[in-house]
Amino acid sequence: MQIKAGDKAPGFILFDTEKKEVDLAGYKGKNVVLLFFPLAFTRTCTKELCAIRDNKKQYEALGATVLAISVDSPATLAKYKAEQKYNFSLLSDFNKEVARSYGALYEDFFGLRGVAKRSAFVIDREGMVRYAEVLENAGQIPDFEKVKETLNSLN
């Protein structure tokens, strides 16, 4: 089932690149931009996440924390984060449970089973989803202008 605007955001606890647990519940009282991306070190994912990195101050000005999730291991994500100098958390959904709970998982992606679909969710301070975009085409990037408009409407 795909999560949509108006739904309660499914909770999760995932490991970040420092192997520390990150609990979505810990962000209550803050707006969160939750991104799922297919795989580290791929062209479109790097383009997408570099755009977030380069515009992070805009998201902070809108009162949002960015969390990006893929099915890669924490070690792979740590190398990717260091190489690209990402300034936000990358989280490992290695067991594919969180992407599945958001309706953001390809069951078959070019023969690979269980890869996150490129997706963007805005979760408000109360844990409600205010924007949801799950892309079927991994070559597309979420509409970050709509993400920012949604964040702006929450302030």
Description:
28% of the residues lie in helices and 25% in strands. The strands form two sheets. The chain has a seven-stranded mixed β-sheet with strand order 2-1-5-4-3-8-9. The protein has a two-stranded antiparallel ribbon with strand order 6-7. It is built from five helices and nine strands; from the N terminus they run E-E-E-H-H-E-H-E-H-E-E-E-E-H. The chain starts with 12 loop residues before the first strand and ends with a helix. With 155 residues, the protein is an alpha+beta fold. The relative contact order is 0.24. Strand 8 (119-123) and strand 9 form a beta hairpin.
Helix content: 25-40%
Write down the Rg.
14 Å
Structural class: alpha+beta
Helical stretch count?
Answer: 5
Features:
155 residues, two-stranded antiparallel ribbon, alpha+beta, 7-stranded mixed sheet, 5 helices
Summarize the structure.
The protein has 155 residues and is α+β, with helices and mostly antiparallel strands.
Task: Produce the secondary structure layout.
Elements: E1 13-16, E2 21-23, E3 31-36, H1 43-54, H2 56-61, E4 64-70, H3 74-84, E5 89-92, H4 97-101, E6 105-106, E7 115-116, E8 119-123, E9 129-134, H5 144-153
Parallel strand pairs: 3-4, 4-5
Antiparallel strand pairs: 1-2, 1-5, 3-8, 6-7, 8-9
